[in-house]
Write a structure and sequence with these properties.
about 240 residues, mainly alpha, about 0% strand
């Protein structure tokens, strides 16, 4: 991977975002939800943070990443990059870095909004970053499969619902739903957060959730590679 090309693509991507301010709705949405829930009675800071971070992960790595990739595809920028021997990993790294910065900024602000203890700051951020990386590949896959930015938003919507599902499944208490939900990356993150909140960070409590997140990372990478090769062949 050539870092100078990643840097150039990153700068170009940031410049493009400043011209399309509507994408910042994706960044502001989790913060608005965090502020809203922090003013409601009976909502614990741990639950508020879990909900807001899952909203963040469902929106930025999937919807925003998909929209950015679809925009490059729609403008034929992606085709130009492919023809100029820019590798898939270089394109993905540049776009993923943009989304990862926004995701981290949201998570940090949310941490202070909900008022969690500072000694848990790093513990809450690390698993969120690894989960985000897995979902960024998935978001890139969505962008490659979409015809344009509008279709990317529509295509990412059901996946956004899926990644938010673990929160509602826990409220339902249905055993079958819980088993299905346990295969979702964000469910693994939520279980890790529950272990942190309960001061029960052991292999038995976070081992399986970590495996689920890693499995999603592998799955998403494979999907991205397949979609990228398909688009390259079509071009």
């Amino acid at each position: 991977m050539r870092l100078y090309k990643v840097s150039a693509l990153f700068k170009l991507g940031m410049e493009d975002l400043t011209k399309n301010m509507s994408v910042f709705i994706y960044v502001l949405l989790p913060l608005v939800m965090g502020l809203l829930y922090s003013n409601l009675d009976g909502i614990s800071p741990e639950y508020n943070y879990s909900f807001s971070v899952l909203m963040n992960l469902a929106v930025i790595p999937v919807t925003l990443m998909g929209t950015i990739i679809a925009e490059e595809k729609e403008k034929n920028t992606l085709r130009t990059l492919m023809l100029n021997d820019v590798k898939a990993l270089e394109i993905l790294s540049a776009k993923a870095l943009i989304c990862l910065i926004f995701m981290l900024l949201d998570n940090i602000l949310l941490f202070f909004i909900v008022g969690l203890p500072m000694n848990l700051f790093v513990l809450y951020q690390i698993p969120a970053v690894f989960t985000a990386i897995a979902l960024l590949f998935f978001g890139a896959f969505v962008g490659l499969m979409a015809k344009n930015q509008m279709s990317a938003g529509l295509l990412s919507l059901p996946f956004m619902v899926v990644f938010l599902a673990p929160l509602f499944v826990q409220m339902m208490g249905n055993d079958l739903a819980k088993k299905i939900s346990s295969a979702i990356a964000t469910d693994g993150l939520m279980k890790i957060y529950l272990a942190i909140a309960g001061n029960d960070i052991t292999f038995s409590s976070i081992g399986l959730p970590i495996i689920v997140i890693v499995a999603w990372l592998v799955f998403s990478v494979v999907l991205f590679q397949i979609a990228y090769k398909k688009v390259k062949v079509d071009n």
